[in-house]
């Protein structure tokens, strides 16, 4: 199926995503303009989508950016580029409820690999579908936010967690 491009303007900046049918392939957010968002996902030259999938996802992304609770569990995500471990990490991350956080170590345990917190971090750092796969909800055990590859880095991660009402400082011992 051919890949198609969609963009939306939100309170979190411009979002661009690529989908193939009803499956999300990649997404980028937090950009100052539409062109920057499209460039960030290598969407130049793709056909602009008007598919119901794209329209529905854009509406839900706008609602999320406005602070509403939005469940993205029904959004199918392309995981074909990942190892089986990477697929388990993405599934575990997607299962974290809005407003909650997990540590990299907690996700490693959930994925059957205690002690693989760094490997979980590597999967999160390469996440192709942020917001839908809410890697911002995964934090280090030390009570800090760690890194974040979206525009504005850790400031954006903190903004997302605040938007969701997540108490990230209590990820380990509250």
Topology of this protein?
Elements: E1 3-10, E2 13-20, E3 23-31, H1 34-40, E4 47-48, H2 52-65, E5 76-77, H3 84-94, E6 102-103, H4 104-110, H5 117-125, E7 138-139, H6 153-164
Please, could you describe this protein's structure?
- This protein is of the alpha/beta class and 174 residues long.
- The chain folds into two domains: 3-65, no CATH class; 81-170, Winged helix-like DNA-binding domain superfamily/Winged helix DNA-binding domain (Arc Repressor Mutant, subunit A).
- Helix content is 34%, strand content 19%.
- It has a five-stranded mixed sheet with strand order 4-1-2-3-5, sandwiched between helices.
Biggest sheet overview = 5 strands, mixed
Beta-strand share of residues? 15-25%
What would the principal axes of the Cα set say about the shape? Answer: globular
The helix tally amounts to 6
Q: What structural class should be given to the helix and strand makeup? A: alpha/beta
Characteristics of this structure?
single chain, 174 residues, alpha/beta, Arc Repressor Mutant, subunit A, 2 domains, 34% helix, globular
Q: What's the short version?
A:
By secondary structure, the protein is α/β, with parallel strands linked by helices. It is built from 6 helices and 7 strands; from the N terminus they run βββαβαβαβααβα.
